[in-house]
Amino acid sequence: MLRHLAEFWRRRDLLWHMTVRHLRGQYKQSVLGYAWAFLNPLTLLLTLSFVFSVLLRFPSQGLPYALFVLVGLLPWMFFANGLTTATDSVSGAMNLVTKVYFPREILPMAAINTKIVDLFFGLIILAGLMMIYNHPPTETMLWVPLLFGIQLIFTAGLAFPMAALNVYFHDVRYLVGVVLTMWFYLTPVIYPVEIVPSKYQFIFDLNPMAILVNAYRRVILLDDSPAMDRLLLGLGIAVVTFVVGYFLFKRMEAGFADRI
Q1: Count of domains in the chain?
Q2: Residue 122 neighbours by CB under 8 Å, 6+ apart
């Protein structure tokens, strides 16, 4: 694995090229282009805010609901969109895979990297909301890069085996969509984890996205450091997921060319 990772690092220039290529094609032939990177989170934010703060009146830890939900929604959208796109990345590039040698893990990583750009546009919306609600950033936001690093490792760890399995079984892309829908409601994006009955708390204790969403809210909105025991647990799950996922990907990689 270390040898493969070293080769992957040496070809990081190709990763950059693939990421730029994917970005250029992402909104190609779209009238609005990159404006969709604003519109997608904005329309979802408005819908969730109306339904869950006006109609259902979900609590939001004493924060404006729009701010509360957006801080959870942005990392979730990066995770879900990155995993979905990465799942199709290898099967959608089989002509390239069968003709040229390169580390195949570049394909799912490039797909995930393109979603960082979408995340950046979402952060602009978040910055605007923080100004509107007079909620200035604090020094605890310095934790955000570390939290994002953990999330990136976890996302890649899931994306590698899903991308490989999708080459062999095309139903995987649909399975990922179903699982992500269930996962969304088991992650405290639209509600605070405090309202979850204690007998179900173990689900959220073992859910890395729940750990990360709660940590993002603490450092961005509550001016508090993340709980270190939860952060270390999330890091441990992310690293184990990455190691196992990368191992499975490399084991299945040899059969890619036979699946065309």
Answers
A1: 1
A2: 37, 41, 70, 73, 74, 77
**Of 215, 245, 240, 250, which Cα lies nearest the Cα of 230?**
215
**pTM score:** 0.92
- Angle, helices 65-87 vs 208-220, to 10°: value is 140
The per-residue pLDDT for range 83-139, each reduced to its tens digit, is: 999 999 988 888 887 787 888 899 999 999 999 988 998 999 999 999 999 999 999
Tokens of 232: 């270390």
CB neighbours of residue 184 within 10 Å: 16
Query: Residue 48: which domain range?
Result: 2-259
